[in-house]
Amino acid sequence: MLDHIGLDVPDIAASRAFHERALKPLGYRIVQEITEGKTTVVMFGVGDEPDFVISNKDRPGEAAHIAFRAETRAQVDAFHAAALEAGGTDNGAPGLRPEYGPNYYAAFVIGPDGFNVEAVCHAAG
Fold first, then answer.
1. How far is Cα 108 from Cα 103, in angstroms, rounded to an integer?
2. Residues of the chain with pLDDT under 70
3. What one-character-per-residue DSSP string does 37-92 give?
């Protein structure tokens, strides 16, 4: 199951305005927006959890990523190990990412096409 997709965009204000209006009929709204310096991250979701994220952190396409939802932290660990064995490059060992949420346990790898692939578990413990 997919957890979320993240895209970098060249004009965050224009992209935010477009997606806010275009996705509204589908039930999407902005659930969180973070600005640090020149970087803005806008998270959209149907409920309270984001599943579509845009940012102006990197050049478009450079940091595009897809996150797969795991049911357990052990699955995240196993994903990371299997991805490295399959030739992926480590982009973040399994662990908690409190900046994304108190139970956000994830691992990241760069696949053969250069995209960031993530597995994330939102369950406590």
1. 16
2. 58-63, 112-113
3. TTEEEEEEESSSS--EEEESSS-TTTS-EEEEE-SSHHHHHHHHHHHHHTT-EEEE
- For the beta sheet containing 39-45, the strands, ordered from the edge strand earlier in sequence to the opposite edge, are 29-36, 39-45, 52-55, 2-8, 65-69, 116-121, 105-110, 89-96
The domains of the chain, with CATH numbers, are 1-57 (3.10.180.10), 64-125 (3.10.180.10)
The two three-digit tokens of residue 67, written as one number: 């996150």
The residues that bridge with 95 in the sheet, in sequence order, are 106
State residue 114's pLDDT score: 73
Structure tokens at 56: 């102006």
Phi, psi of 18 (to 5 degrees): -60, -55
Amino acid of residue 124:
A
- Dist CA 56 CA 39 (whole Å): 6
